[in-house]
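Long-time lurker, finally posting.

We've been working with Rrf2 family nitric oxide-sensitive transcriptional repressor (Roseospira visakhapatnamensis) and I want a structural starting point before designing mutants. I don't trust myself to interpret raw outputs, so I'm hoping someone here can both generate the structure tokens and explain anything notable. Sequence follows.
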Amino acid sequence: MRLTTFTDFGLRTLMRLAGEPDRLFTTDEVAREFRISRHHLTKVVRNLAQAGFIVTRRGVGGGFQLARPASAISLGEVARALEGHHALVECFDPDGGACTLTPGCRLKGRLAAAREAFFLELDATRLIDCAYPPPRPQADP
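Top reply, 14 upvotes:
Generated this for you. Predicted structure of Rrf2 family nitric oxide-sensitive transcriptional repressor:
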């Protein structure tokens, strides 16, 4: 399975926020750092906020940051939220697509199982495990 660029940008953004969870980031800043389109990233940030992964603040001193701890966010839930509307193959489309094999297809179930295994593997990884930059180890008191 291949993730869309939209999901890739979303995961990278969340990884960056997880690296400095107490800080507010701006779209311009993240777009520059990752050398991605600010316009495209704006849409990604909007979707991440709507899905409850980030909170946004408008105005001077505004920006966005994680809505909950990175340890409480799985990569699977992020991928599902951002990829959910993309059909793996045409017959997965809610409208049924135009596949002539649909009535007797023996492939669709296997593809659905493979997709679920993909997401289950991502469920096993927390955002904190992929934080960028990685969190610094706490010094012993």
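Before you design anything, note these points.
The chain has a mean pLDDT of 88.
The CA atoms of residues 14 and 66 lie 7 Å apart.
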